[in-house]
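Sequence, please.
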């Protein structure tokens, strides 16, 4: 009987050790490659064409990277990826972005409203 009882105790210790390992790594966040994978998924969405019906369908992206024209439908696809990135304690690389121009719907696509020489002839 002693042999069976000893094996049971060893099993409990092993299970307790596994619990500590799992709990211990749960708060560490995502690996760098997992973080880069999330950014890559978001960039794939941001770099698509963003169709629109009117100006209300368009906005400037907030993540990843510098702002780009984005439609509200695709913003809904990027937000959960950004949430995983943030929850995973991923680090955002340094970036220097220019001021983001107004985004509007032009011929069915979300685009920046660029100005020339401080004036905006497209308004």
């Amino acid at each position: 009987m002693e042999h069976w009882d000893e094996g049971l105790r060893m099993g409990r210790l092993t299970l307790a050790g596994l619990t500590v390992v799992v709990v211990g790594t749960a708060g560490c966040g995502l690996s760098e490659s997992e973080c880069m994978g999330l950014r890559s998924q978001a960039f794939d969405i941001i770099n698509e064409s963003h169709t629109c019906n009117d100006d209300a369908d368009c906005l400037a992206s907030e993540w990843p990277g510098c702002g780009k024209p984005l439609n509200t439908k695709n913003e809904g696809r990027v937000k959960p990826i950004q949430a995983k990135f943030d929850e995973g304690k991923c680090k955002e690389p340094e970036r220097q972005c220019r001021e983001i121009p107004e985004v509007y719907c032009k011929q069915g696509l979300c685009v920046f409203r660029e100005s020339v020489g401080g004036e905006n002839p497209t308004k």
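Helices lie at 2-26, 32-46, 72-87.
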